Amino acid sequence: MKKYLSIIVLLFILVSLNAQQQTEQDSPRFYKDSVSGVMYRTNDTTKVAGQVVKPAFKPDPIRVVWMGAIIPGYGQILNRKYWKLPIVYGGFLGCAYAISMNSGKYETYKTAYRDIIDSDPTTNTYIDILPEGYTVENLGGISGYTSILKTAQDNYRRYRDLSIIVSIGYYALTLVDAYVDAQLYDFDISPDLSLRFQPTLLENGNGLRNTLGLQCSFRLK
Predict the structure, then answer these.
(1) Which of 72, 122, 138, 202 is the most buried (most CB within 10 A)?
(2) Dist CA 63 CA 60 (whole Å)
(3) DSSP β-bridge partners for residue 195
(4) By the 8 A CB rule, do 152 and 114 touch?
(5) How confident is the model at residue 192, as a pLDDT?
(6) For residue 44, what pLDDT is reported?
(7) How do strand 211-219 and strand 194-202 relate by DSSP bridges?
(8) pLDDT for position 220
(9) Nearest CA-CA partner of 68 in 147, 148, 171, 169
(10) 212 to 34, 203, 209, 217: CA distances (angstroms)
(11) What is the pTM of this model?
(12) CA–CA separation, 107 and 123 (whole Å)
């Protein structure tokens, strides 16, 4: 478990230092339109109204996915979603703990089960893992205890495999999250996008009187 924790902490430090360096290099510039007076935020060097500026930052979704696949959490850094890093690494830490714990339990019960079914009297690890206050006789004798060890071994093997599957799924989820964030980075969510309901007068044909109704309108910027 300590090995997994050390690896995750080391990765976190490396990507944090890289993110700080990248942020300094990609720090946005601003310019003011001489006609409208509007301030614009930019990144890549270009010229507008005789001034050197940078166009708006937009992450590359493909690069984000590839870098996130190589270094977990790096996709979120490229998207500048730094607040997601504790969630990403916390999830990986939890998955690593689940795999480590279930693997350890599986190995313990597997060894105990093999010891109880062999004919060597010196292999008795199954006695060492007995709960406090219990004996082999309390658990149904050799045959009953053997069945318990076999069931525990199978259960923890299943839990270990399930933990690995969940970890792979979580890893894929972080890549999907980074890709979607990159694709929707410049998506317009301003107040000018709105859905409104308002009363309206419905005109009826064939000589019928007009009636009042409710109109739904979707306003784009």
Answers:
(1) 72
(2) 5
(3) 218
(4) no
(5) 54
(6) 46
(7) antiparallel
(8) 52
(9) 171
(10) 48, 9, 10, 16
(11) 0.63
(12) 15
